[in-house]
Amino acid sequence: MAKEDLAALDAHWRAANYLSVGQIYLMGNPLLTEPLRPEHIKPRLLGHWGTSPGLNLVHTHLNRVIKERDLDALCVWGPGHGGPAVLANAWLEGSYTQRYPAVTRDAEGMARLFRQFSFPGGVPSHVAPETPGSIHEGGELGYSLAHAYGAAFDNPGLVVACVIGDGEAETGPLAGSWHSNKFLDPVHDGAVLPILHLNGYKIANPTLLARLPDAELDALLKGYGHEPLYVAGDDPLTVHHTMAEAMDQALDRIAALQRAARSGGAHTRHRWPVIVLRTPKGWTGPRTVDGVPVENTWRSHQVPLSEVRENPGHLRQLEQWLRSYRPDELFDAEGGPTEDVLTCVPEGERRLGATPRANGGLLSRPLPLPPLERFAVTVDEPGATSHEPTRVAGELLAQVMADTARRRDFRVVGPDETESNRLGALYGATGKAWQERTLDTDEHLARDGRVMEVLSEHLCQGWLEGYTLTGRHGLFSCYEAFVHIVDSMVNQHIKWLKTSRSLPWRAPVPSLNYLLTSHVWRQDHNGFSHQDPGFVDHVLNKSPDVVRVYLPPDANTLLSVTEHVLDSRDYVNVVVAGKQPCFDWLSLDAARAHCARGAGVWEWAGTDDGTRDPDVVLACAGDVPTQEVLAAAGLLRELLPELAVRVVNVVDIARLMPREEHPHGMPDSEFDALFTRDRPVIFAYHGYPWLIHRLAYRRTGHANLHVRGYKEAGTTTTPFDMVVRNDLDRYRLVMDVIDRVPGLAVRATAVRQAMTDARTRHHAWIREHGTDLPEVADWTWPHTSGG
């Protein structure tokens, strides 16, 4: 590389380093036009310096290759706590000013850039939604590489660089993410260029990969299926030269691999390049502070000089540090970057901070959703037929997959459970993504498949986050109990969406949709370890602007809900639905109306004729609780026909919340009309019963609310025994009605005793026969009298 080209790269890097330091420390005197004084320094010093020089180096060199090769590129910044670096580069290239016009590319704008960083009313210290060009919040480590691959899938012209910090490389999700290259189709997908940044230290300890012997690290990365390229050193010009060579070699290799695959001549999995970058932590910062080593140690991780306002020696050292970058060469008289600094910077949407790939809503297209009538089950009478709801929904998903075959912007992910969850119809439209060797006994594997199965919920979540944030659509199918593995990841995604909604320049992106099946009530065969419905509780703790939870009770309501969530934007949608045969309660038209309401009375199921208030309300949410409530309603109709029973089904669980707490919440007047203000409400709920109390605690009739649900009474047993063990069964519900309707306990003593006897008979039966009571197993809704 020519000397002048290296000088231009170095000028850009020094400018970015200067701006990074300034953001951590300065609230005045941005160009050092006068000696630093304590009042120029922020009162609270926050931020992370240690990783910033390395990130600035990567950004500088990505700029060069993007400009020279006219690349469509995106970068995922794994060390997201290096926010000063990414913000600095966005300001240098002008994309920051494009999004935030008040932060101009001059001395006044530089002062605003500095002051706002990690400052009240300003911007976070991490890479965040506020940062142009970002799709990745780096505050929690482990997900960068999965996000990068998610962005690359079905983006054949895109190169996604991914900087992986060596601290992040120690996490389980990141370790699993290296296997994503086995799912990358070089014909239809883009490329991911991992850049493993080994600066040697975390916040207080050395990092494992940085201390591995070179041969062992090389073997590890090759074992993951990569071809490593190494860049190391602490002399800037030498590192610039080596980094430029590595970038060119990596991109030449990617281009050659893609050409070979797209010409039809290559059918084996490729060995993709990875760059290993070794530079000192806190490079170019203070080498020692108060006689203690700082550069190239863990002490440079955050703020190397921590007493700048109080300690004159620290203040002098900070000024020397800032002036070491020679800012008078980097910024003109008005404070804007000089021509030398901008030599390597691309223009327009090629700038990393301006790429629409990182603002996926700009590129997103609505899914072609077919008419639901093509998939709906016929319901002439409630409960007269049964279907597996997820199998019915699978036909809809398969059609969407077929209809997006050419545009390739829809994927279904899950941990080895697509067929198990009755979504096998998808394989009529696409195969399972797979780049490894195949055997004659394999089924549905395809190099261009858009169903993605891997036994890592972290990978499924990360891929889908990267995919949706770059404007495409998808669904995550998972066993209900094990979606908890990504609790922390979904936290971060919800926070990202909530923040993005407040930024007018970020376009809404397709929602992240969960289909949770193999749920708590039908994990009787796998037992206690597979029984946990708490993901709904976890999600409903989060921002009501973003989260939605649906519990469709049958096949047609699941179709209606699936159509709704696939068509939505900027939400995390959780749909809980069973894969086992379930009674069909509602026709498609009735299901649509019911789902639109979110909660409503099923008049055909109760004995409440509307001429007087009901004696009791039987409410339900979830497919198994709905069946048990209807069975209880049938028993009450038969045994206590004088009782006025209202049956209420809830699909949208947030409807129980007040309108002030959630956009879907019911006003008090509507809630009282549905559940009454003073009558007992027996609520059979799919999950932990205290959630319903928490959602409804402010309602007038809350004192009358009695909730049955899962209470950690699980085991390997029969399906009906699961509900009996948790007191959610029909017999217990009838007993609850008798116990809570005033005056009924005396009149209905015999009925209550019969219900107790039925539970006792059940216990004896299953222990002898291993199956549920015939009266339960063969139960159907008495549609001749109720339909």
TrEMBL record:
Kindly list the cofactors needed: thiamine diphosphate
- Report the record's Gene Ontology biological process terms: carbohydrate metabolic process
Per the UniProt entry, the signal peptide is none
What PANTHER family does the annotation carry?
PHOSPHOKETOLASE-RELATED
Q: Which CDD domains match?
A: TPP_PK
Q: What is its EC number?
A: 4.1.2.-
Top EC group: lyase
- Identify its protein family: Belongs to the XFP family.
Q: Name one Pfam family in it.
A: XFP
Top-level taxonomic group = Bacteria
Q: Which SUPFAM superfamilies match?
A: Thiamin diphosphate-binding fold (THDP-binding) (SSF52518)
Domain (Xylulose 5-phosphate/Fructose 6-phosphate phosphoketolase C-terminal) ranges: 579-781
How is this protein named in the record?
Answer: Probable phosphoketolase
